[in-house]
Amino acid sequence: MTQEVATKIDTQYGSFNLAYHELNDKRFVTLSVGDITVGTPLVRLQSACLFGEAFLSMHCDCRQQLAKALFVISESSCGILVYGVDEDGRGIGIANKIRSMSLEASACIDTVEAFKLLGFVPDERQYNDALEILNSLKTSKNIKLLTLNPNKSTLLAESGYNILENIPLAVDGLSEKAEKEIQVKKEKLGHHKI
Predict the structure, then answer these.
(1) What pTM was computed for the model?
(2) Ramachandran region of residue 21, left (φ > 0), alpha (ψ -120 to 50) or beta?
(3) What average pLDDT score do residues 12-22 get?
(4) Are β-strands 26-33 and 14-23 bridged in parallel, bridged antiparallel, or unpaired?
């Protein structure tokens, strides 16, 4: 793994240590506050979502989850967000995400069914690279995990992380389409209910 460059960044949620990482031909950015090597840092694994974060799509809650994660981590004074730049569309990439969105609309099916019709599993992400980044940064093994996704919890627990608390990132004021997407994730992907 290479850490190409690091600096500080001021955001509307607070100031963060910002670093760029490359691992297995994938790009990641970490935003952290405090000393994550001790105590019980908050940890968030976040995948890029061009449509939700840049274009303010009404189809998902990705932008709101990212904003809340940064706010909570900043307020905690000790935490890290590992942002997978190349994990758009739950790991299938931007072009395939557009194909799945088109299929959802034309066939009146949900995102899980669209992924299957395109030949993908419902979530292609593995999180092993994000885990390697956490390990390389010597992140404390006692963490509080910000997620609704049980796959993240399982991987970290099986890799020696002691998850002292699993904190759901519930967000309010979502569109009807985003609420339906969340319901599909709960029913078909096992995401935690709030």
Answers:
(1) 0.90
(2) beta
(3) 95
(4) antiparallel
Output the six-digit token pair for 30.
Answer: 């970490």
| C-alpha–C-alpha distance, residues 182 and 172, integer Å | 12
**Angle (nearest 5°) at CA 159 between 161 and 21:** 90
Residue 58, token pair as written in the block? 């009404």
Residue-wise pLDDT tens digits, 79-89: 999 999 988 88
Q: Are 191 and 185 in contact (CB under 8 A)?
A: yes
- The closest of 1, 16, 88, 20 to 51, measured between CA atoms, is 88
Catalytic residues: 123, 125
pLDDT at 38: 95
**pLDDT at 25 exceeding the cut of 60:** yes
Q: What dihedral do alpha carbons 153, 154, 159, 161 form, nearest 10°? A: 40
DSSP readout, 84-142? ETT-TTTTT-HHHHHHHHHHHHHHT--HHHHHHHTT--S-----HHHHHHHHHTT--SE
Mean pLDDT along residues 164-190: 75
Beta-bridged to residue 11, according to DSSP, are 14
Q: Supply 87's token pair.
A: 């994990």
Token readout for 191 is 């995401």
